[in-house]
Amino acid sequence: MRHTNFALALLTAAALTACGGSSPTGGDQTLKTKFSAQVSFGDSLSDIGTYAVGIVKASGGGQYNINGDNTAKNTVLTGKNWTELLAAQFGLPAPCPAQTGLEGDPSKGMSVPITNHPGCYNYAQGGSRVTNPIGPGNKATGSPLGQMTVPVVTQVASHLAVSGGKFKGDELVTVLAGGNDVLMQLGQLSAEATAAGKAEGDKVGAQTFAISLATQLAAGATNPMTAFQAITVAIATESARPGRTDQSVVQAAVTAAATQPGNMAVASPAVYGPMVVKAQADATAAGTAAGAKAGADYAAANGPKLVAALGTAGAELAALVKTQIVGKGANFVVVNNVPDVANTPSGKAQSAAAQELIKAMVNAFNTQLKNGLGDDPRILYVDLFSVSHDQAINPAPYGLTNVTTPACGPNVLGTSSLVCNASNVIAGDVSHYMFADDVHPTPFEYSLVARYVATQMMIKGWL
């Protein structure tokens, strides 16, 4: 079975450590390729401390992980992500963030000057997208955190600017991005679908309320049809008046009803009160149903646009790697595709339709990324999607004990792994959980990623 092959690959990488082979788990290795440095581009999955400042640092955070060295509690709780583990394995200096800072709310400790760090080559930033500068947590989204979310295209340009416009050729370059393009596009669609649903729900609810109330109020009149028409006109007229309220609309309806022959009794609150309650209930039921349908219809109609947009982003990343990384002299470039976002806790919390859309978006990105990269011997395309998908549905062979529950508990940023550490994880042994929060890995899962990447590098002939 496929999951057995993936698991064996990881176990093989781990076993190599004991034999002095190439694996990101420690040991005395003799490497086939001696890398001079590690240069990393991407998002939160590779970020090693861009936002480890202000309240984030004060809260014991800085990475999207279970932060801190907790190996005394469990040896896998290293607090390191996959790029750090690879660097250590290859005898390279510990990676450091090329840029740090926050552009958020000063009153919350989320505004810290942006600082560039010469000699640090991990450019990955939480929230970063491929080319769009506005990612999750960016101040432009209204987030008080104020993440910089510098896109990968700019990250690469920044490195070229400090390296003479080229790579030396003996660096290990890692690229992992695209997840935030999925999340931002999906979030935008959700907001638009919600707005469309609310607009339709409000409209249908108002119409239903007017019809239900008018029908009830007119029932006791000598001529119910004439009364109904007079009441609906009164409701429409008052509803269109600036400054009107729900109470004024009801009062206009009742007044119109009570002036109809044989219908004076309806003016009593004891009579019309229950009618209003029923009309409100009818309106809520009809509005909710109509809003849900309108929102779903909007999402279904616009979902294909998101799939196309992710395909474009995947192609853009491939072109960036080809022209600005390999094209500028890099000979060892690891490009990871987007993992299985639909099987994260965040993805599983979505509706079935949304999950299918996420799958299609990720597939479009990964397909265009792979096709755009081609078979260049200087590029290693790593299929993180397949292995992460297999881990989510077949966790045991990988040593994973939980693939559905986030390990991080409540903290100053909600339940974000950015400030997650041993003091705020949930109760119990979370050392072999897959997820720290609703999308980010634990240290153990990062170690699985590092081992899998190292295995693919070995198969490629680089190790």
Entry keywords:
elongated; 2 domains; 463 residues; 4-stranded parallel sheet; 12 helices; two-stranded antiparallel ribbon; alpha/beta
How is this fold's topology laid out?
Blueprint: H1 2-18, E1 38-42, H2 54-58, H3 82-89, E2 99-103, E3 111-116, H4 152-162, E4 172-176, H5 179-218, H6 224-239, H7 246-258, H8 269-325, E5 333-336, H9 345-348, H10 352-373, E6 379-382, H11 384-393, H12 443-460
Helix pairs in contact: 1-12, 3-12, 4-8, 5-6, 5-7, 5-8, 6-7, 8-10
Termini distance? Answer: 27 Å
β-strand percent reads 5-15%
Number of domains: 2
Poorly predicted runs of 5 or more residues: 11-28
Number of helices: 12
Strand order of the largest sheet: 1-4-5-6
Largest sheet entry: 4 strands, parallel
Instruction: Report the helical percentage.
Output: 40-55%
Shape: elongated
Rg measurement, Å: 29 Å
Structural class: alpha/beta
Describe the structure.
The protein has 463 residues and is of the alpha/beta class. The chain has two domains: 2-177 and 395-460, no CATH class; 195-293, no CATH class. It is built from twelve helices and six strands. The chain has helices at residues 2-18, 54-58, 82-89, 152-162, 179-218, 224-239, 246-258, 269-325, 345-348, 352-373, 384-393, 443-460, and strands at residues 38-42, 99-103, 111-116, 172-176, 333-336, 379-382. The strands form two sheets. It has a four-stranded parallel sheet, sandwiched between helices. Helix 4 runs parallel beside helix 8 and helix 6 (224-239) packs antiparallel against helix 7. The longest helix has 57 residues, at 269-325. It starts with a helix and ends with a helix.
